[in-house]
Amino acid sequence: MSQIFTPLSPFSTMQMAVDSVATSAHPSNKIAACIYKGPNSLAHANGWPPAIATNFPPDARIGNSSGTVHAEVNCILKAPFATDGSSLCITDPFCPNCAKNIAEAGIKHIYIDHKGFAKDFAQRRGDDFENMSLRIAERAGINVTMVNRKEETLTPIITIKDGYVPREDNPIKIKKFPDEIISHALLQKIITKVEPRHERWGVALSRDSNGITTALIASCHPAIGYSQNTQTPLNAEGKYNFWLEPLNRLLMGAKRFGLNIPPNLIFTSQIPTSRELVNAVAADIKEIYCANPHTARDADSLAAAHLLSQRQILEIKELNIQH
After folding, report:
1. How much is the pTM?
2. Number of domains the chain contains
3. CA 31 to chain centre
């Protein structure tokens, strides 16, 4: 007999998110989200990964990043199902960084609680939400809707036309190795053959649902829907920019395809950014192999890597490669 289930609604899943707000350890800015697909759901609040919470005070900076992980990213990283085609309910408007990660994770609908538009982020960074978060979502083909739970109403903010396919001129590459055992030796063999399209790139190994060794290959690239060669300005606009770094792409892309990356089978060409490293800690990554552990996008990245290594939270290991 086939299993019969009732698909979850944005009202019930938004309530799950609201119910999870109290689990946030953040003293003032408590946000939660719920990711769902079919009958499956997971709610999570923003907060500090355990390894950071037990080793640093709440106000500690990890390079130029806070030690917290946003609720949306927490949901993606912890999702027990492939996130491609899923929906996400959030108690507050989402920031541009989360918009990029949500798009890379393949999420197709974002619901925002109507009360969130009167809260902290919307008040402080409403322009960033309007000018960047929504632009990224629209380009990526993500519907955005405001939810009023009490009145049970849905108010469209962005509606994507049927058949729209976002531009992806440099998507994450997925390669299968059915005759290979997942190993550090295979990781090294793969990276020697990569022809990167950006100086910052990375590779991660995993196993698919059938146990087949799988490699993900990604380079730094603008958010899904944008081209690396676009005439639209993509550089920093204040705190945010439109680019998604390779480690974040690997972490979100793996969850999109239902893959779990082992704690020690990731390679990056340079030291990841501070925010990427915090997200990696949240994803339980313990080691990152790096072609040049003395090169990074900025000095803050180097400082973050050194700090996490000092506390034995995440270690950067050098791995020489020759193309």
Report:
1. 0.94
2. 2
3. 16
